[in-house]
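Schema walk-through. Below, the input block comes first and the output block second. Nothing else is stored per chain. Lengths vary across the set, and this one has 183 residues.
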Amino acid sequence: MICLQNNQLELNQSVVTIGAFDGIHRGHQALISKAKAQADSYGVPLVVYTFDPPPKVYFQNQSMLTSLPEKKKFLEELGVSYTVFASFDQVYASRSVQDFIDELRRMKPKEVWVGPGFHFGKGKSGSMEDLAEYFNAFQHPVVTCSNGEVISSTRIRELIRHQKVEQAYYLLGRKPYALTNAQ
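--- output ---
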């Protein structure tokens, strides 16, 4: 997997999936796997476009679920060809919808995949509809656990805050570190 910063990647063809991907939880894994299957069907590279730090960490001072080295490791294990780690700061957050679309166009995506509720650009002014004007854009459906609750980074943070670590790690799709080492 090749890691780059924003505005560094140009490709002849690709499939791109975009998101904060904090935690690379089961919902993220489903989205990335779907995009990977599409990239494989076209015979093109899969690009994950993500942010460092994730927007909620930057704007809301939320805890980060996955460190950058862990995120890179998990993305590589999912078969990602390229990862763009956009340096999320005040300058990046003020980018226009068109700036973001122009950057994506340089990757020549055959498809763009996002999760539910995806927004981009200054003040979250860009939406799925904006992506669909320029690309074959698709929104992956919400992923829920067996009891029907949505799997999200917010929910995982809440479980960790209430010391329900095993439940949190189940939603992340991996075992807690202590349990992994004990086996």
